[in-house]
Automatic annotation (TrEMBL):
Origin species: Halobacterium jilantaiense
Lineage, top ranks: Archaea, Methanobacteriati, Methanobacteriota, Stenosarchaea group, Halobacteria
Protein name: Uncharacterized protein
Highest rank taxon of the organism: Archaea
Length: 113
């Protein structure tokens, strides 16, 4: 049975592991980790709120805004949390908020009036 999906813009607080040898600055490293999540189509904003250097990586707390595709469910926040939690290097996902109207969809409905 096929399931429908929807594109949503999600803002979430993440704790993740960013490789020390990542290219670019810290925000780019966070972006690369989040882009590794299958459901994420685009990373719009990254705000690093905490950094803890460790032996092989950097433990980073960040607030991110992403556009992602999740299963069409009444609770988009829960679907977004589940999708982000499956990302490699992402330890925790908190304070997830979604905005279905803000996501740009290439299939916009033409309005007449």
């Amino acid at each position: 049975m096929a399931t429908a999906s929807q594109t949503v813009r999600v803002t979430a607080d993440l704790t993740m592991q960013v490789p020390r040898n990542a290219t670019g600055d810290l925000a780019q490293g966070v972006t690369n980790v989040v882009r590794g999540v299958d459901a994420v189509a685009r990373v719009d904003e990254v705000d690093v709120t905490n950094l803890q250097p460790r032996l092989n990586d950097l433990r980073v707390d960040a607030t991110v805004a992403v556009e992602m595709t999740v299963e069409d469910a009444p609770d988009a926040e829960r679907a977004g949390t589940t999708a982000l939690s499956d990302g490699f290097g992402i330890e925790t996902v908190e304070n997830v908020e979604s905005d279905r109207a803000a996501a740009d969809s290439p299939e916009r409905v033409q309005e007449y009036g």
